[in-house]
UniProtKB/TrEMBL annotation:
SUPFAM superfamilies: C-type lectin-like. It comes from Lymnaea stagnalis. The chain crosses the membrane at residues 330-348. Residues 1-18 form the signal peptide. Residues 144-233 form the Apple domain. Residues 30-145 form the C-type lectin domain. Keywords: Membrane, Signal, Transmembrane, Transmembrane helix. This is C-type lectin domain-containing protein. The keyword Transmembrane helix applies. It comes from the Eukaryota.
Length: 382
């Protein structure tokens, strides 16, 4: 009994002491996060303003493993690994010593407090996902993030979960199974994949984010005519978009945080399940930063149809080679009918045509009466 009391007392003391970080599991499933890698360098304030301009904020690198798992799923064509500098994150320190994440979220990590004499500064992140203090006037690439909608499921055909990977079975169809996987979470794990086996839905959980997608060789076997569905809660694009021009202000200033941060957004609506391998559309940062009127004009421009570029117009001006035997036979028959019809018309009028041609040539060769009398008159006059 005394041992249990000591354990409870130690746990209570750990919660009260900031030197003992307490990582509490999320009470809602993951939502979808979209990351935009801006490769055009900017100082911290300009980078933060650029993210805010299209509804995002500088990346919150609160959990290096989570961020690494997310970025590993993105198709950035090596742009992140090819960077020669660190990238800005949303962590910054105010002059009073208070730490904040961009987007009005308090800094909660212990162990990274700077020396008291250090001036206000911002945090960058290297390619190993470690944070480093840096002068905010430095110009670095940066990552913006937006919490946008729900996760989606990638069908991985000809794959099957290995036998040692245990799952939870349930009686449900694909749509219901996707909703179960989207909604399932417990204090230690979350559903990151499911499959349909013997008319049963099998959910596969893990405490590691995107574990089955990032380590397919370790957890999946290649099996023909089998399909597993992997949950993806990340998306991303790269952009060379110019940062928002900012004034001489380069030091972070307190944000107007009128509402407390509520964490990741999560929607109660059902999953829009689609048996396809195409992810949800990710709008570009350039488009998101446009004004409402400019967005409307772009949508109208996309909806306009050029009549000269339609399939009907194209078919009028172009013929298609049809190699089917039936089509070729019909074509030959049509040519034969046309030849017979027009050939018959020519044959019916052939005699008249010949006589007409003969009369034309005969008239040209026969001299006129005036021409035949002119020499005789000339002889008489002589």
């Amino acid at each position: 009994m005394a041992f249990v009391f000591l354990v409870m007392l130690f746990a209570w003391a750990a919660k009260q002491d900031s030197r003992f970080p307490c990582f509490v599991a999320a009470n809602v499933p993951s939502s979808r996060t979209v990351y935009y890698l801006h490769t055009t360098p900017a100082h911290w304030t300009a980078a933060n303003s650029t993210c805010t301009r299209y509804g995002g904020h500088l990346v919150r690198a609160k959990d290096g493993d989570k961020l690494k798992a997310d970025l590993k799923t993105l198709d950035w064509h090596g742009a992140f690994n090819n960077l020669t500098k660190d990238v800005w994150t949303g962590l910054y320190r105010l002059e009073g010593g208070r730490f904040m994440w961009s987007g009005c979220e308090n800094y909660t990590w212990p162990g990274l407090n700077p020396p008291p004499t250090f001036p206000p500064y911002c945090y960058s992140m290297d390619k190993t996902y470690h944070l480093k203090p840096l002068d905010c006037t430095e110009k670095l690439p940066y990552i913006c993030q937006i919490e946008e909608g729900q996760c989606w499921f990638l069908p991985a055909e000809d794959y099957k979960f290995k036998d040692e990977v245990k799952g939870n079975r349930s009686s449900a169809d694909l749509n219901a199974c996707a909703r179960l996987c989207r909604n399932y979470i417990d204090p230690t794990s979350e559903c990151w994949g499911f499959s349909e086996e013997s008319n049963e839905c099998v959910l596969y959980n893990s405490s590691a984010r995107h574990i089955y997608l990032n380590e397919m060789v370790k957890y999946l076997d290649v099996v023909a005519s089998s399909t597993v569905y992997l949950k993806i809660c990340a998306g991303g694009e790269t952009t060379t978009m110019n940062p928002v021009p900012s004034a001489a202000r380069v030091k972070p200033e307190p944000e107007n945080c009128t509402q407390p941060h509520k964490g990741e957004a999560w929607q109660e609506e059902g999953v829009c399940y689609c048996d396809c391998d195409q992810p949800p559309v990710i709008l570009t940062a350039e488009y998101l930063s446009l004004s409402t009127d400019d967005k409307i004009n772009k949508i109208v421009e996309e909806l306009l149809v050029d009549a000269s570029n339609t399939s009907a117009s194209f078919r009028k001006l172009n013929s298609i080679d049809d190699k089917r035997p039936s089509a070729q036979s019909l074509g030959a028959l049509g040519i034969g009918v046309i030849c017979v019809v027009f050939g018959g018309l020519i044959l019916l009028d052939l005699n008249r045509l010949i006589s007409h041609i003969s009369s034309v040539f005969c008239k040209e060769e026969t001299p006129t009466s005036n021409e035949s009398t002119q020499p005789r008159e000339a002889e008489i006059n002589l």
